[in-house]
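Summary for the funding panel

The consortium committed to producing paired sequence-structure records for every protein in the target list. Below we show the first two records in order, beginning with the earlier of the two.
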Amino acid sequence: MNLEADIRWKEKPFCLLNRQARTEVKNQAQIGEYSTGDEIWNTDYPGNQFLIISGKVRLKEKGKSKSLGILKAGDWIGDLLELSGQFKATASNNVVVVCWDAALWTRVSSKKVNHFWNQQRSHYQPQNVNLLWQVEQTQKQEKFSLSWFVPAIWKYHRLLGWLTDKTQFVLQAAFRD
């Protein structure tokens, strides 16, 4: 494997590094090869950051059989994603990765590089579907509980003349969908 050819040094996050940091990252890169079923990374043994060069990697929550996703060439996995929970990444087939010490990335990092890791985390971090559903249901209930009141106000506000322009605007905005 040729690190110069196989890694896209002109893409994120490498292009976000200054020249000295990029050189340090290049010099400390280590190649790793894994066979089907081999564990590449898990949250119990922190310290590394991986870029998948070839093959597919299965990301799973520990203790669960269902896969959260399949990672492929160009995807990142490791400590800098700061996934909340217990996860592991295993090779789905023959996999080649480039590995770095996560502390190196922390040392050479910048706001832009940190933003890159935050974006990557959002790709992998599972959403709490139940929580999202509960929020949606609560919003619907709140809207429904006031829905009888708004038409009554609109019907009589001209007769009574007690709604200000600001109150009308608030009511319009609250029930606009």
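The next record, for a separate protein in the list, is shown here:
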Amino acid sequence: MLITFILYSSNSVDIFATIDSLSKQTNQNFELFIIEDASYKAGNNINYLYNLITENWNKNSKIHLICNSKSNGFYKNATTAISESKGKYIVFLKEAQIIEENFVNNFEIANKQYKNVELYEFNLKQSFFDVKEFNKDNIIYNQILNLNDNPELITTYDTTMYNKAFSASLISNNNLFMQKSDLRPIAYIYKSLFMAKSYCRLDINMGSENSEESKYSSFYMLKQWSHVFNMFRINDKYFEFIDELNYIYLKYILFKFIPMNVNSGNVFSIKKAVKIASLKIKRRKKQFINNKYIQKDENPVFHDVIYNTNEYFKKILS
């Protein structure tokens, strides 16, 4: 089996749209674990979820529904699903993520060409941030690479779990199971990139999602960067990758962290986000000014923001 999809329910009806998009896949070479982690208090909702699956999938034995009477959390459930999975690759999904109907088929074709790649990444359209469009001039598509030989991978590696395929061997060989110590999605995906002997960004459109990392607050996500930096320090690689890390960290602050809060429409969160972002940029100002990736980035939007951050923040607050 090619893919094990893991879809976690956090009390949102948006999960049904995701399930429906998977049922329309032209290639059914996958299994699906749906984790209903005691988020629906009413039993009728669980019954509806079960009925939807059986109606759309004709009681397909590759669909696994995990219903917990008591919440076990995403990580414990994900570990259970991974340990029971049969797929060569693990793909995490979120509610409201719509998968293009040819995704599995396109991935299978590509995987036959790029054999035994440990970590794949795909194009994913987000409601406020298009991964492909933003980095289109820098992304290296359809080539097998690794971080040691290609440190620039960090600068285009997207900070979401939901556009990646982790090989089962990468997870098992490096103990990359969702343990309690790994309660940090950003740290997890960078650890995966660090450990992967082979990586390939496929120019394949996976689909779209309506929001970024809705399970977590944007402020929680930003704090995870300290764990990313520490992981490189522990492995004596921090100074080797310092320019790459600072470059993508700055882009994350300006083009993900800030938009996540603007997208929320919460005035208090927007003001708080701008204040935090201003402080973090100020602390690393010298490192940013001398950063080789910032200096050679020719994206006019990026340059306009990075060299006029005060005006950028004023515009957001106005």
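Regarding this second record: The mean pLDDT is 84. The CA atoms of residues 160 and 186 lie 7 Å apart.
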